[in-house]
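Entry 12.
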Amino acid sequence: MEHLVAAAVIDARGVVTGWSEGARELTGRTAGEAVGRFAAELLGDALPGGGPVVLRHKDGHAVSATLTACPVQGPGGEPAGYVVTVVPPPPPSLGELAFQQASMSMSVFDTRQRYLRLNSVACQVMGVDEDVLLGRHFPETVEDAEHSQGFNFHLREVAETGRPVHYESYTGEPSGNREHAWNIEMWPVRDTGGELTAVALAAFDSSEQYWARRRLALLNEAAASIGTTLDVVRTAEEVVELLVPQYADFASVDLFDWVLGSDEPPRIPEGQVVLRRVAHGSGTEGTPEAAVHLGETDAYPSYSPPARALREGRAVLSLAGEPDFVRWVDERNTRAPGGRPHRQGVHSMMAVPLKARGTTLGVAVAIRIAHPDDFGADDAVFAEELASRAAVCVDNARRFARERTTALTLQHSLLPRGLPGQAAVEVAHRYLPSGSTAGIGGDWFDVIPLSGSRVALVVGDVVGHGIPSSATMGRLCTAVRTLADVDLPPDELLTHLDDLVTHLATYDDGSADAAELGATCLYAVYDPVARRLALAAAGHPPPALVLPDGSVRFVEMTPGPPLGVGGHPFEATEIELPEGAIVALYTDGLIEGRDRDVDRASLELRRALAAPAPTLDALCDTVLKAVLPEEPGDDVALLLARTRALGADRVATWDVIPDPAHVAETRQAAMAQLAAWGLDEASFVTELVVSELVTNAIRYGEPPIRLRLIRDRTLICEVSDASSTSPHLRRAHAYDEGGRGLLLVAQLTQRWGSRQTDRGKTIWAEQAL
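Predicted 3D structure (tokens):
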């Protein structure tokens, strides 16, 4: 663009007498406004020598120019004035315009790190004008901080090596307290001769990209660090640990009480909301900002950000100076005045609801105090994403805890609480539910009194974990008790139980895959009179036997297949035990595990059982402590039974002549034995029971016939014969001559029944003593 020459004529008095169009363009004043005024008002005091001047434009801004004054002589050679021409500065080059108008901070330093040039953005960042910094050493203009030292180091590096440098820095800007991320490029500047004369730099404010990366990194970190355990409180603590101190100076997680219990979620109230503090954390040791202690409840008023976040279902931001924010901080200070100094600088707060699967579980709160930036819209989006992931983890932990509690309650309701009274064995037991994420397993044990002072010892394990496993365990536990009441031998009982598991799988699932519903079981029967133990196993580890001399061995037995496999027989093993021997039954969780060696664990079990212990309970504790790892991966059931024996002085046996005429003789022998035991008060009922059972054996059974009386906690009368036909109760009619005997036995005794034996059957009846 061409410019007209700015010229003016000034007389000897210094008054403008001529004014060109170029002068009007340069100063903004017309000839009418300039002619007649003193030149000093318009052109400054540069006359008469001329040179660089700063003119004042009509609108007030300064105009730099070069002034030339040519003196004018009058007719007589006297000074008549001046002709003044003003040459405006050349327009800035395109490069200069680009430098000044760049959207990023650009600066030029000499090789000694002194300022040479700054563009307008760099001046804004530094908070001062360019002329304040020109010629000054960089370290003199900034705080002595790590990022400033790094900046100066890179300036020296470029000046010394002549190689460009690119690096990123996260720091505040000198003109404000906001934190910024800078993407900085430095390069050497050389003159036409190739000599390095300066270092130039461009700094791009990449704060948005930096925080976007940080938020993404936090979300990735959340995926790995939140929900590592299925524990509600620990999951809440992991959320706080993620936020503090890298994202907030204080954070807390409050949950509804029902999340920590087993209740169903209620509706969120419209007014104040009551929550329980489960986790909080602070960048300051001791968490002084917290007005609520861990485990305490807090009533959030309706205006508070947490209550609003729960009610509105979104993140709520609140900043210092807002009325609700001020009320909230004042309420915190009133509740916990000791933390007031630590809340002094609170300037930003964000509350976000924890929602999972359409259910609101609680609220997370993040507060910034020393952190200079306020929470913004991008932070709200990030917080909602983080809260949704955390809420799913909290809900998973809640559901697991609820299912675990349900399964544990179900299992404890099915396991024996108080073992029934019997004299055959002294028992002690332990049941340890698994703490793994798989849930409670299906381990169970039982002690079942049988006829003839015998006792059944049972231990089993259902495949799988959780409520289905516990429910199946309950079915099998009930089935074992029912089959034991029939007094089946161990191998026959397991055969029936195997059929039951197959049927359960067929009814529960059309695929009839019984292996998925499989279970293992060990069933043993101890007879204190014969001092013999009969047992059979279905895929279960053999029991350990501790003899009175302290030696320990595992019972050698033929292992059967797990229940539900079908098609394979079960074989019973029978051994004789001395009085005082200990039989240890257990589930595989005691000796097996993913990272455990079974042989080594079995050896540890033998050593633990051999250790002296004052009681069976103490021995149980010794075994678990010695054999189990700190965190067992499966349920463990342990049942210890110390055998007792009924001596000959407590058992009397008679062979009965199969002739009704000898019934009275047998009855008299039985009464004499009662008298010898000092049980005369039981003679009336016993006489009737002996007469009825012996008479029925003679009439309906087959020889040989035997009568046995056992004095235990009850008085037991047993009559055995070679017939396998079992009697049954029936109601006799008015004119029937028989049929009332067993009815009288059932009414006069505590209980009665029959069991099959290898040689026939045995009818028995028990009287309470």
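Annotation: The longest helix spans residues 377-414. Confidence is low (pLDDT under 50) at residues 510-515, 731-738.
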